Amino acid sequence: MSKIILLVEDNPDDEELTLIAFQKSNIINEVVVARDGVEALNYLLGTGPHAGRDLRIMPAVILVDLKWPKIDGLEVLKALRGNDLTRRIPVVVLTSSKEQQDVVESYNLGANSYVRKPVDFTQFIDATRQLGLYWLALNEPGI
User: Fold this and answer.
1) Where in the sequence is the domain holding 128, given as residue range(s)?
2) Cβ-contact 63, 128 below 8 angstroms
3) CB within 8 A of 34, min separation 6: which ones?
4) Which of 1, 70, 71, 97 is 20 to 30 Å from 10 at the Cα level?
5) What tens digit of pLDDT does each residue of 38-95 get?
6) Could you give the maximum distance between any two Cα atoms of the chain, in Å?
7) Residue 90 falls within a domain, yes or no?
8) Cβ neighbours of residue 10 under 8 Å, at least 6 residues apart?
9) What CATH number does the domain containing 35 carry?
10) What's the predicted TM-score (pTM) here?
11) What are the residues facing 63 on neighbouring strands?
12) Residue 142 domain-assigned?
């Protein structure tokens, strides 16, 4: 069974860019997109519109941005690490934030990695390829 990627991204342009980068990097895994923290938690916990979802099928990795309306990425990270169902799923903060406070807080809340989105498209594709290779092929999940 293919490993699922959960992409939590509220910016449609960044979402499209990420999906194109996956495609150009030959990452053919299913990508589930949540457009904010509430939607991500509903998907992961099988609530709201995702009630009844098979919770035995979880993403191999979650890619989160930090700045969203409603619940931000740090609050989502805290909720994920506080729930037995999601605490071991690898979470990669994929953001344009350069604030050192965001880096420190992300790791304090249990992020597995913090990656700044490269502005250059070629570099973004390379970063995405490396993320996919590591988290989907090399990493041994603890789930």
Assistant:
1) 5-136
2) no
3) 6, 7, 8, 9, 40, 42, 43
4) 1
5) 999 999 999 999 999 999 999 999 999 988 777 888 999 999 999 999 999 999 999 9
6) 40
7) yes
8) 35, 36, 65, 68, 69
9) 3.40.50.2300
10) 0.93
11) 7, 92
12) no
